[in-house]
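Raw record, unedited: Permease
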Amino acid sequence: MFQDPVRGALASPAAQSWMTVFVAVVVQALPFLVLGVLLSAAIAVFVPPSFFVRALPRRPALAVPVAGAAGAVLPGCECASVPVAGALVRRGVAPAAALAFLLSAPAVNPVVLTATAVAFPDRPGMVLARFVASLLTACAMGWLWQCLGRADRLRPPSRPSYGARGGGAAFWGSVRHDVTHAGGFLVVGATAAATLKALVPARWLSAAADHPVLSVLVLAALAVVLSICSEADAFVAASLTQFSPTARLAFLVVGPMVDLKLFALQAGTFGRAFALRFAPATLALAVLFSALTGAVLL
């Protein structure tokens, strides 16, 4: 009964455009997502948290940039960085350093940077810009917490880590968790990007894209709402061709640090009072450093 109407709807130019963008985003991003999940699970299970304690300087002001740069050793999405940051706090790492690690890990690790290079083959500067803006934001938030943060607003995490379950069970438990979260949000993000590309009138996006300030704010807000995994967001950003490189950089920097699912994870791990203060400050700094870095490097 509905075969002909459905076939006709799927054959329309809008539906064809939607399916093309959706499939392209998912197929391009999926290998990086799977690789990141496997590597993240291996590090979360087999690398003891005490390793990071020994590797960081004792002074918090020096530990913050070191922890931010150490984010490169956690090839995973923001879903993986939150429990690892919680484990660092439980092991006695300065909260400022753990928070810098939490913000930088999803954005400066090699899997994410490689995915960014693949998504932007004609703009190699986007990789460097993403690394610089993300690291600056992570370090600035770490130092800001060191200066202004209060211990009573950071509830120490108490739930056990994957490593407590032992070997293979812990590894596959971590893999299942990250695949469930990251894979689902990848599909949601690809759906939103395809819908934005196929259905939203071009004049609406052009009105925002043509304004240098508004375009950055629009894509920053979009990154918060879409909650795309950091291993897949570069392909979504690359599909938003009507926006400037700086606006797309803001999308890439904000997404791994401030989005709806990350806010929920932070609130569940460190407490709601912490998340309600930490997320807005991170968003403001991420937009600021994205605009400054984009103006210099892009």
